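User: quick one, sequence for these tokens?
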């Protein structure tokens, strides 16, 4: 489920399932045997966030086996930056990207930015990704007072943003096996804590209802941002 924010004309969030890019909608889709399930959150502080998120996902859907995944992602970033420089208004357009690549029984985790990936272990939910944010960087350098007063959502790494350096922390690695995973944009996880997500995922509702409950909880808790949550079930 992915929804535009309360005051947004268009959603800067988008979701890729196999080769279909979804935005501001809800859907139940088959997990691809060979393909992607990803969330991209266009950077709200930069014009063109919606363009950036949809461009990266649309290009990712075109991947074939003639090039490695990480090299292909770097190529997408090069094209995004090159295109953005032709548009003064959108010259710094950028997006996060977090999700999974399924390929012949192997699952790879892709991550940059502050969207998140989780997997379920028993009844517990484990966060797989680390947010690439100023807040996390300040904490890692023991600057706790500065972290307490900074913008928690300010990202330090992303696709685009006018600089290839911002992609330097792109993570693409084989993922540990799982039967259930979840992806969220920050419009969700900044307003719904992990315990609540865990409780909802462990509930009796179907997956579509669980996505709706998580989205509604974020809105109830004050989220006016675009919101995206994807629950991936590999159980038979």
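Assistant:
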């Amino acid at each position: 489920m992915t929804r535009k924010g309360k005051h947004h004309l268009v959603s800067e969030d988008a979701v890729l399932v196999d080769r279909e890019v979804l935005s501001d909608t809800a859907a139940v889709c088959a997990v691809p045997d060979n393909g992607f399930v990803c969330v991209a959150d266009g950077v709200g502080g930069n014009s063109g966030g919606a363009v950036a998120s949809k461009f990266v996902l649309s290009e990712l859907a075109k991947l074939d086996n003639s090039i490695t995944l990480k090299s292909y992602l770097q190529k997408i970033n090069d094209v995004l930056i090159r295109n953005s420089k032709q548009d003064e208004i959108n010259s710094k357009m950028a997006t996060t990207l977090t999700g999974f690549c399924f390929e012949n029984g192997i699952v790879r985790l892709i991550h940059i930015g502050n969207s998140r990936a989780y997997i379920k272990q028993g009844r517990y939910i484990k966060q797989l990704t680390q947010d690439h944010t100023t807040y996390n960087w300040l904490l890692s350098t023991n600057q706790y007072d500065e972290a307490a007063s900074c913008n928690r959502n300010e990202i330090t790494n992303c696709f685009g943003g006018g600089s290839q350096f911002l992609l330097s922390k792109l993570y693409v690695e084989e993922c540990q096996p799982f039967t259930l995973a979840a992806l969220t944009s920050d419009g969700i996880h900044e307003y719904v804590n992990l315990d609540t997500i865990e409780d909802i995922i462990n509930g009796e509702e179907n997956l579509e209802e669980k996505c709706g409950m998580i989205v509604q909880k974020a809105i109830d808790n004050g989220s006016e941002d675009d919101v995206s949550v994807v629950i991936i079930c590999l159980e038979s």
